[in-house]
Amino acid sequence: TDSTVSVFLVDDATGQLRPRGYVISGDSPRAVAVHPSGQFFYTINGGLSNNVSANALSATGLVTAVTGSPFPLRNPNGPTAVAVSPNGLFLFVANANPISSNVSVLSINQTTGVLTEISNSPFPLAPAAGPTAIAVHPSGNLLFVTNNNPGTLFVFTIQSTGFLTPIGFPVPLLPNPQALVLNAAGTVVYVANNGSNSNPSIPGNDSISAFLVNQTNGGLSQIGSPFFTGPGTAPSSVAVGPGGQFLYVANSGTGTIGLFPINQVTGALSAGGTAVTVANPQFIRIDPDGSTL
After folding, report:
1. The whole model's pTM is what?
2. 255-287 CB burial, b ≥16 within 10 A, e <16
3. Can you tell me the mean pLDDT for 203-210?
4. Which of 288, 293, 292 shows the shortest CA–CA distance to 13?
């Protein structure tokens, strides 16, 4: 509520966090994406701001604003999710409002971190699609966007200029998809369906959808039925563990982190259990070396 982003140093040995202060962001900061170099991070701001704050980050955790920050979004609609391409060249922002939804694409200056929105941006989604999450394929050639009005998954090709081209038709999902993640090879995408907000009595609403990703054309093929996470679990975030052996699921409804074994051939999930109990988990990530969740 104070429109700031807190900064912490991570102890590599223990995973403990040490506060390093905070930076002023825009109104209602929604999400943060870190540049692959670790030198910059970007915060999308909603409310009255509808822009992106850019900050440079030193190895000791000192933060300074990038010149020109915050950067406005063209035809802003209320940013909801953000991702950086693996090569660090582009920032993708999913935007939503009751009338229209789209994806903004901004180029990133690799030296200064300055953002410039590319020509033809933003790129349209379905009217009032309500994007909830966004992810870039490890190759940097595909962009995935989940939407909750209705539950769908869009896939775009990413050209070398950052230009987005939709692939086929949106793939239907169960109600209220909230997060998605790809495995390290980019062969499977997993989507968390936080369906309990719609109707907790319908089996399978609280679930994970899994799709094989065609590496040639970006097409999706569903892997079995959605995998049930348990009544009232309300999965809100997902992460693939080291080696791609397990899927971790933040269950905001039951206050747990679920653990599901991944079939290494098919990508299907086996019946899982609870890795740990956490009060109202909303978002999870695994650090780059795979040692800390």
Report:
1. 0.92
2. ebbbebebeeeebbbeebeebeebeebeebeee
3. 81
4. 292
What are the tens digits of pLDDT across the range 131-148? 999 999 999 999 999 998
Query: pLDDT of 90-149, one tens digit each?
Result: 999 999 876 779 999 999 999 999 999 999 999 999 877 889 999 999 999 999 999 988
Please, are residues 136 and 92 in contact by the beta-carbon 8 Å criterion? yes
Give every CB contact of residue 71 below 8 A, 6+ residues apart in sequence.
Answer: 51, 52, 53, 54, 106, 114, 115, 117
Q: From CA 90, how far away is CA 147, in angstroms rounded?
A: 21
Phi-psi region of 255 (alpha: psi -120 to 50; beta: other; left: phi over 0): left
Q: How far apart are CA 99 and CA 149, in angstroms?
A: 11
CA distance 70 to 79: 14
Q: Could you give the CA distance from residue 265 to residue 64 in angstroms, rounded to a whole number?
A: 45
Give the torsion sign (CA, 21, 24, 25, 30).
positive
The number of beta carbons lying within 10 Å of the beta carbon of residue 68 is 13
State how far the Cα of 51 lies from the Cα of 157, in Å rounded to an integer: 24
Residues in the chain: 293
The amino acid sitting at 48 is L
Do 26 and 43 contact (CB within 8 A), yes or no? Answer: yes
